[in-house]
Amino acid sequence: MAVITDSTAGLSEGQLAGIGVVPLTVTVGGRSGVEGVDVTPADVARALGERRISVVTSRPSPTELSAAYRAALDDGAEAVVAIHLSSRLSGTYSSAVAASKEFGAGVVSVVDSGSTAMGLGFPVRAAAAVALDGGDATAVRAAAEVAVRQTTTLFYVDTLEYLRRGGRIGAAAALVGTALAVKPILRIDTGGVTLAERVRTSARGLARLEALAIEQAGDRTPVNIAVQHLAAPERAETLAARLADHLPGIKELLITEVGAVIGAHVGPGVVGVVISPC
User: Fold this and answer.
1) What secondary structure does DSSP assign to the chain, as a single string?
2) pTM of the model
3) Per-residue pLDDT reduced to its tens digit, 138-195
């Protein structure tokens, strides 16, 4: 079995055992490059901070995705389970579905993660663990789908401006144009980006993000948690420490920076929490 995802999952080298990655493209000020290779999160944060520099992201084409699936099959895999970022956030999923049709029935199975970053990464890791343990395509896909249903992604942004620019704002669009002091806490689910709560200050926003994450984790143990950010390491580290104090059932606690593609749509200062029972 081969498990393939895309670069928005942001998995580190140590997490990529048995996992193939198809990159997205980021264009910063007219210069295009591969996410995580040619264009880094720092590049995006710097460009967004300067405001005059445009940042645009592009999905992989069906041709690029089918090439990745075929390479895995040529390398000896009997089948491929491809798990990609939310169809509500990107056309990557539809490209993957189109690419899968080039193969026989059941050879390439495509799963919509309904999320991105580690909201995608945790289901990918769950699927890869089953594949490495000898599971067939049905078992690998099922592991991904269970993890998708159980994983929650919450995030706080200083401003909705970057989501508005990229058209990824979804049901939270009603907040655009409201008082500048409104600080939204958002959720990524099957409906796209939706509003969880709104508060008046950044301190209150981060406190509510912490409280909502603790509530979501509840008494489910063990649980994996990822605290993710763009150009806000101190915020992320403080939040991670507080979650560790309040949630004794954490199996793995990751602190990572989101990739360039996600960073382009949420902007500097974002802090997110992904909760995934394991």
Assistant:
1) -EEEEEGGG---GGG-TTEEEEPPEEEETTEEEEBTTTB-HHHHHHHHHHSSS-EEEEPPPHHHHHHHHHHHHHTT-S-EEEEES-TTT-SHHHHHHHHHTTS-TTTEEEEE-SS-THHHHHHHHHHHHHHHTT--HHHHHHHHHHHHHH-EEEEE-S-SHHHHHHT--GGGGGGTTS-TT-EEEEEEETTEEEEEEEESSHHHHHHHHHHHHHHHHTT--SEEEEEEESS-HHHHHHHHHHHHHH-TTEEEEEEEE--HHHHHHH-TT-EEEEEEE-
2) 0.93
3) 999 999 999 999 999 999 998 887 877 655 555 455 555 444 557 889 999 877 888 8
